[in-house]
Amino acid sequence: MTYRYYQEVIKGKSPKKAPTYIEEEKKSVWVCDVCGYTYEGDLPEGFICPICGVDETHFQKQ
Ligand SMILES: [Zn+2]
């Protein structure tokens, strides 16, 4: 049995209560190490903190 079969056939028959929202939890969160500003999602290249103005090298992935 392949994982894909499991996902499509077996999980497909599981109750609707299955936590499908888990996908959202995978979103990256970046935190500015200078001011604490947080950015959700993939940090764009050349991103500048809107609060304190430092570049993306000051953002730490959570
Ligand atoms: Zn900042």
Folded structure, characterized:
With 62 residues, the protein is an alpha+beta fold. The chain has a domain at 19-61: Single Sheet (Rubrerythrin, domain 2), CATH 2.20.28.10. Helices cover 19% and strands 16% of the residues. The chain contains two helices and three strands. It has helices spanning 3-10, 22-25; strands spanning 29-32, 38-40, 59-61. Strands 2-1-3 form a three-stranded antiparallel β-sheet, with no helix packed on it. Strand 1 and strand 2 form a beta hairpin. The longest helix is centred in the first third of the chain and has 8 residues, at 3-10. The mean pLDDT is 83. The chain binds zinc ion (ZN). Residues 32, 34-35, 37, 49, 51-52, 54 line the site of zinc ion.
SSE blueprint:
Layout (H helix, E strand, L loop, with lengths): L2 H8 L11 H4 L3 E4 L5 E3 L18 E3 L1
Antiparallel strand pairs: 1-2, 1-3
The structure holds zinc ion (ZN).
Total number of helical segments?
A: 2
N to C succession of SSEs? HHEEE
- What is the tally of beta strands? 3
Q: Name the hetero compounds present.
A: zinc ion
Any guess at the CATH architecture of the domain at 19-61? Single Sheet
Placed side by side, the strands forming the largest sheet appear as 2-1-3
* Proportion in helices: 10-25%
What is the CATH topology of the domain at 19-61? Rubrerythrin, domain 2
Radius of gyration: 18 Å
Largest sheet: 3 strands, antiparallel
Instruction: Indicate the overall shape.
Output: elongated
**Share in β-strands:** 15-25%
SSE class:
alpha+beta
Mean pLDDT: 83
Q: Enumerate the spans where pLDDT stays under 50 for 5 or more consecutive residues.
A: none
Indicate the CATH class of the domain at 19-61: Mainly Beta
Distance between the termini: 35 Å
